């Protein structure tokens, strides 16, 4: 009948929920924040991220794999010494595989210098190596006579072309986005730690006061007794 106790109960419930939300926002654990910051700073002190290290290993694999294929080609076509002299000393653009090996060396030097030594966070270096590799291989396949020299005339150009584009994909879709995400996480954690430092000692549960629910219940019971007592006396 009397809406006052129900309104008081709703007000108390809303006050408690608002206090709980404030407590969730401001109860920042400085120890946990410092642990996260130290973990991110530890990654920075390593000098190179794990995904960038994997990329550098793949670039090294590119050079070693092309070198291995070239050495096998030298050994198959009449011995290493004779074929090496023919392809290097008497270099012929139309029949030699030596330039494909030099192309792998070019990719290795540029990419390691850019992304391991200088630690670039841009794609221009990989774009340069991939563009040079693609243009050179396409011109060599069109103008040279490699296809008439057996299987290696197909294998070396195709492998070099595929490896160059795998490196581009790995850097553009794995290395750079993941490092940017880790940097954003570090900035967010540092910003949260600075905000936590502005709150002296944080906010504890004792700083919030809400009337006990038992008092509201007792007041409602007393009012019911007051309204029911005259009815009993009239009876």
End-to-end separation in angstroms reads 21 Å
Number of contiguous helices: 8
DSSP summary, beta strand count:
0
H/E series, N to C? HHHHHHHH
Low-confidence stretches: 1-5, 10-15, 17-28, 202-209, 230-235
The biggest beta sheet is recorded as: none
Considering DSSP H and I runs of 4 or more, what fraction of the residues is helical?
A: over 70%
The secondary structure category is mainly alpha
What percentage of the residues does DSSP assign to strands (E)?
Answer: under 5%
Gross morphology: elongated
Q: What's the average pLDDT?
A: 76
Radius of gyration over C-alpha positions, nearest whole angstrom: 37 Å
Walk me through this protein's architecture.
InterPro entries: MENTAL, STARD3. The chain crosses the membrane at residues 55-76, 96-116, 123-143, 149-166. Keywords: Membrane, Transmembrane, Transmembrane helix. It comes from Equus caballus. There is one protein chain. This protein has helices at residues 4-26, 30-45, 50-76, 80-89, 98-117, 124-143, 152-198, 213-234. The protein is mostly helical and 235 residues long. It has a domain at 50-197.
């Amino acid at each position: 009948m009397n809406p006052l106790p129900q309104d008081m109960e709703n007000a108390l419930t809303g006050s408690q929920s608002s206090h709980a939300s404030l407590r969730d926002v401001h109860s920042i654990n400085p120890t946990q924040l410092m642990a996260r910051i130290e973990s991110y700073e530890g990654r920075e002190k390593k000098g190179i991220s794990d995904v960038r290290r994997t990329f550098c290993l793949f670039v090294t694999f590119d050079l070693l794999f092309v070198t291995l294929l070239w050495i096998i080609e030298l050994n198959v076509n009449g011995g290493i010494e004779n074929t090496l002299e023919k392809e290097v000393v008497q270099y012929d653009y139309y029949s030699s595989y030596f330039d494909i090996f030099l192309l792998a060396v070019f990719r290795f030097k540029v990419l390691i210098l850019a992304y391991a030594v200088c630690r670039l966070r841009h794609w221009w270096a990989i774009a340069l190596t991939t563009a040079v590799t693609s243009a050179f291989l396409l011109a060599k396949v069109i103008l040279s006579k490699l296809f008439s020299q057996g299987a290696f005339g197909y294998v070396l150009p195709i492998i070099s072309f595929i490896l160059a584009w795998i490196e581009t994909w790995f850097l553009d879709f794995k290395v750079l986005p993941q490092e940017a995400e880790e940097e954003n996480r570090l900035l967010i954690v540092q910003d949260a730690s600075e905000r936590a430092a502005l709150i002296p000692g944080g906010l504890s549960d004792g700083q919030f006061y809400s009337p006990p629910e038992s008092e509201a219940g007792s007041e409602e019971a007393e009012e019911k007794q007051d309204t029911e007592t005259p009815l009993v006396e009239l009876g």
